[in-house]
Amino acid sequence: MKHLVTVSTLETNEILEILDSAENYRTNKQGWKPEEKMFVANLFFEASTRTRCSFEMAEQQLGLTTIPFEVTTSSVQKGETLYDTIETLASIGVQSVVIRHPQDRYYEALQEKVSIPIINAGDGCGQHPTQCLLDLLTIRQEFGSFKGLKVAIVGDLRHSRVARSNAEMLTKLGATVYFAGPEEWKDEENRHGTYLDIDEAIETVDVVMLLRIQFERHEENTSELAQNYHSRFGLTVERERKMKSHSIILHPAPVNRGVEIADELVECERSRIFKQMQNGVYIRMAVLARALQPIERGLNNDNNYQ
Ligand code: CP
Predict the structure, then answer these.
(1) How far away, in angstroms, is 197 Cα from ligand 1 center?
(2) Is the CB of residue 215 less than 8 Å from the CB of residue 156?
(3) pTM of the entire structure?
(4) Is Transferase one of the keywords UniProt gives this record (predicted)?
(5) Which residue out of 101, 125, 131 has the highest number of ligand 1 atoms within 8 Å of its CB and is therefore the one to mutate?
(6) Which of 2-16, 78-92, 210-224 has the lowest mean pLDDT?
(7) Residues with a CB atom less than 6 Å from ligand 1
(8) Nearest of 256, 209, 193, 194 to residue 230 by alpha carbon
(9) Is 294 flagged in the annotation as binding?
């Protein structure tokens, strides 16, 4: 079954296949669309604009039927478990579920039990596979490949699922990853990069990947740190001037304007922030196709747990 719950289990060739498939959808070349009706449901237990809406757009573009599901008006409110929710949807004909959930690795206990593929739309501070893939697509469109590229991931590293997924994949694909940000938000467990001073990082790299401050995941009071954040660790106009001439800016968004990045830089020439969002639709089309194509061909139980 073609779950996509983490990027860690994806082989390099699979990553490249997903990027190629997304690129084919983007350029209107041939891509999979189901011949008969297929059904998906999007289960968002945390807030989302980009991921949810771009999954919905991807589903529409593929001709899939999206079964409406709202956590707040569902039987989750009566205590129904995630497993029972998924199997209920499966039993009425849903063929894949897209899930965002606040619990890290919520999928671990589920992936070998459920009867339909899970696409992870973000788990707590864990992983955000489709964000990672759309970031990779955006970088590849710009530079052609990943080998030898230098990428700085900047900010709230400890609480960021985007940082975790991206650092691992970029390293796997041959890029060098640097981290920069406040001492308090260092991620000591992430071994896929080395820490640099923010100014050195900005001047060194080809891609400056900014992270949103994840206020909702902070256990301690971080308002003081956030107040001084822009001048100490943010992409100020002065820092942007010191970037290499060809370097680009990424941010998964939503953006805290004037905090992680100066307001006037969000849509500057180097910024690919809205391009990332466009690419999100094509990546999600590719990921949905990867999950659903085997089902259409009657190959749902090949034990290919990912
Ligand atoms: N980048 C991202 O995951 O945005 P949303 O939380 O709006 O989905």
Answers:
(1) 27
(2) no
(3) 0.95
(4) yes
(5) 131
(6) 210-224
(7) 48-51, 122, 131, 252-254
(8) 256
(9) no
